Amino acid sequence: FVKLRISKKLLTTILICLALFIVAYGVRVYDLNGTGATWDEWGYHYPSMVYYKAITDGSASEDFWKVNNEHPPLVKYLYTYAYSKDQSFLDMLSGKTQRHNYFTGTPYTNARKVSALLNALTVLLLFVYARRYWGLPIAIVASSILTFLPHFLGHGKIAALDSPTTFFYVLAVFGFHYAIEKDTWKTWGLAWLLSGLAISTKYSNFTIFLLFGVMYLIWRWPKIKENPKHAWYWKTALLPVVALLILYLMWPWLWYHPIDNFQASVSHWTGSPPKEFFLGTQREAPLHYFIVYFFATTPLLVLLLIFPGIWRLVRKRSFKTWLLLLWFL
User: Fold this and answer.
1) How far apart are CA 92 and CA 83, in angstroms?
2) 65: nearest Cα among 261, 260, 237, 318
3) Quick one: which H or E segment has residue 98?
4) 105, 179, 205, 263: least surrounded by Cβ within 10 Å?
């Protein structure tokens, strides 16, 4: 009887996950190219052509792997694989056809499907995470909101960095939480790997180590109060080291001059920020850009529920509630 009850619970979870994924992926691939071309997609289509040539030629030449070097390579690998399944992409590489009509968005279809898949899997990750730590009702509500959140959904329909970056960030947070909870070699190995994949998508994901540090201190706070030495844990300290090693191994451009080439890559973002469309004009984003963007793109009902939710979390003061607050910030 007990086994039957457990299997029913598991079956229910699986069926909900399946339904969530079908809906989330379905609304993203529906009318996938309806928007036409968007701002950054060519910036990852061209590197995919260069990466494909380097891979098929078996070349580790810097001239190939430095293309679009302001971003790490993982997303470009994913899109390169997607484009390699498109015959028109291969025909253009071989010179059989001329340049595509990019304004239609059609040349980006395969990569957009990858973006949609990772976007939908992020919804699934949220459900599994929330189901484990906050229960089924919260998991259903949270994942349903994320499924139809306009800003998030929109990024799942274009072949840019945002959708993969979010997926690997959430996956890495889940992995780290599981690692500090179980504290086994397997869980820490998984956390190290996922952290490496997260920073190999976009440099903004380096902020994940700040989140991990605060998460760990909150998790260990009772023991740290007894003895401050408990604040140090070598498995946590190894996270950025192993993650950087994974990035290095993944990107042939770093093999030649690791420090110089990494600095050259990061230095792209040390000057003036690129101009953004903000309140009807294209200009450098002001400090309040993200706050305005958040309020402008988040549905009103969600906004109204956020603030009482935050107040409730602050009052509870458990590890899980602090984690939610940190993630929100």
Assistant:
1) 11
2) 261
3) none
4) 263
Alpha-carbon distance 108 to 169, whole Å?
A: 24
pTM: 0.89
pLDDT at 103 over 80: no
Confidence of residue 102 (pLDDT cuts 50, 70, 90): low
Per DSSP, 149 falls in state -
**DSSP label of 170:** H
**Angle made by CA atoms 101, 162, 91, in degrees to the nearest 5:** 30
55 or 303: which leads in pLDDT: 55
Tokens (6 digits) for 9 = 């619970």
Q: What is the rounded distance in angstroms from the CA atom of residue 273 to the CA atom of residue 285?
A: 8
| Cβ(28)–Cβ(157) below 8 Å | yes
Pair of tokens at residue 88: 């028109």
- Look-up of token digits 């090693």: 245
Nearest CA to 47 out of 20, 28, 74, 25 is that of 74
> Cα–Cα distance between 128 and 174 in angstroms, integer?
10
Contact 74, 197 (CB under 8 A): yes
Tokens (6 digits) for 84 = 């390699």
